[in-house]
Structure formats: C-alpha cells, structure tokens
Design brief:
This protein has 239 residues and is α+β, with helices and mostly antiparallel strands. It folds into 2 domains: 103 residues, no CATH class; 106 residues, no CATH class. It has 6 helices and 7 strands. Helix 4 crosses helix 5.
Length: 239
C-alpha cells in the first residue's frame, strides 16, 4: 500500500490494521456475523481496516505527544487499537469511521494528546497566581459542558467523548482557586488562548502552557468530575 502522507509510519499502520482485523474476527465470531456478507466481501473488510489504520496514524502524527509515551508505538497499537475502535462503534459501522472518531479512540488507548479547541478535548490545567495580594493562590482552566436541556455545567474529564450527542457544545472556563481549594467561576471562553490572555490581564505573569497536553487522570470518580460534587464558592450555571 502506498501512503499519500510520507510521514506515516508503515509499521504503525500495519499494526492498527492487524489489530482491527483480529478484533473484527473475534467480534464477528461472538456475534455470529458473516464478515464477507457484512462488507460485501472479506477483501472489503480488510480495505476498511487499512483505511482506518492510515487515517488514525495520520491523525496521531499531529495530535499524540509521543515524547511523553513509554510504550513502543506499533506494539501498543497492535495490542489495543482494534478493541478501542470496536468500543467506539459496532463492527458493521466501521465503514463510517472518520477523523472525528480519532480523539475518542485515542483516549481509549490512554494516549497523551495535544490540546485542541475543535473538537474540544477535556482540558484541566492549573497555574500559580503570581499576584501575592490576591485571594486566589491558583488559576484553573477546564473544559466544561452541560447536558442538552440542562443548565448545570460539569467538567469534561479524559475519556469523555468530545462529540457526545447528549451534550451541548463544550466551552472553556476560567476559575480562581483559593488556599482552601475552593473554586470560583470567573469567565467562559470559546478558545483556550482567550482564557489564557484574560488570566494574564487579571494576573500579569501567570504561566499557563502555550500548548497544553491532555493526560489520562482517572474516571468518573475523579473529585472534579461534577462541580456540584466539589466545594465551590459558586454554582456555575448558564447565564
């Protein structure tokens, strides 16, 4: 197979395809599904697996923070990529796999990711407040969203689907954090860079990362998962 993008690692693409092929075979046996009939021929299933593999590797080259990984990239993909894809969608729906599915699959693989605003990833970064006279010791920027029809926000954590149809589009929120760990909502933004710029006006010299990294930090039991579960100076609702 000839790749249009020369930066793709053929070993990684092959590992993805093999992993998806094996996971597909196993899933088909469990579901008593005929892959040849489902994909109009077994060769078409293999072509779909190669297409998805190349698509994910191309996305990963831009979004995965490889310097923070300990695993050997092709080995990790061969071990886990296929199962992660089939957690994202059913075997029969694989032909619809596209770039929008990559962030969710990447988080199922527990990969460190460069933050992006679209589709917005679950961000959680803190910075020391350089203003000694302030009531806040730290500033915190997080991705938040609310269920459709609800007005109470909750934080997105690593592993939450950025394009979950049950939620309204996410936003970026800036919070002040005092010495006791109590948080106070300051302002919402559409872009991370705008939140950083605003924090810089409130606290000149505050040092948020220019290019933050999104890491796996736990599951729904994380104490910051829902604002109503944490000690807060305010209830963050739509205005």
């Amino acid at each position: 197979m000839i790749f249009k993008n020369d930066s793709l690692d053929p070993a990684a693409v092959f590992a993805c395809a093999v992993s998806l092929r094996d996971a597909g075979d196993q899933s088909a046996k469990l579901e008593k599904l005929n892959l040849s009939e489902a994909f109009n021929g077994i060769d078409q299933f293999y072509r779909e697996a190669m297409h998805i593999a190349a698509l994910f590797e191309e996305w990963a080259c831009e979004h995965v923070v490889f310097d923070e990984m300990c695993d050997v990239w092709p080995y990790l993909l061969e071990d886990k990529f296929g199962a992660a894809c089939l957690q994202r969608m059913s075997l029969e729906d694989l032909s619809g796999f596209d770039a929008d599915d990559c962030p969710d699959v990447a988080m199922k693989l527990l990969l460190p990711l460069h933050y992006q605003d679209a589709p917005r990833l679950p961000l959680d970064v803190m910075a020391i407040n350089p203003v000694p006279s302030s009531t806040f010791t730290h500033w915190r920027i997080q991705t938040i969203r609310c269920l459709t029809g609800d007005d109470s926000f909750e934080t997105m954590i690593y592993g939450d689907d950025p394009l979950d149809p049950e939620y309204e589009p996410s936003i970026i929120a800036l919070y002040g954090v005092n010495a006791e760990g109590l948080v106070e909502h300051i302002k919402d933004f559409e872009r991370y860079a705008d939140a950083v710029a605003f924090a810089g006006k409130l606290a000149p010299g505050v040092d948020f990362p220019e290019k933050p990294v999104v890491h796996a930090r736990g599951d729904s039991t994380h104490p910051w998962k829902k604002w109503k579960k944490c000690q807060s100076l305010c209830t963050h609702r739509k205005t």
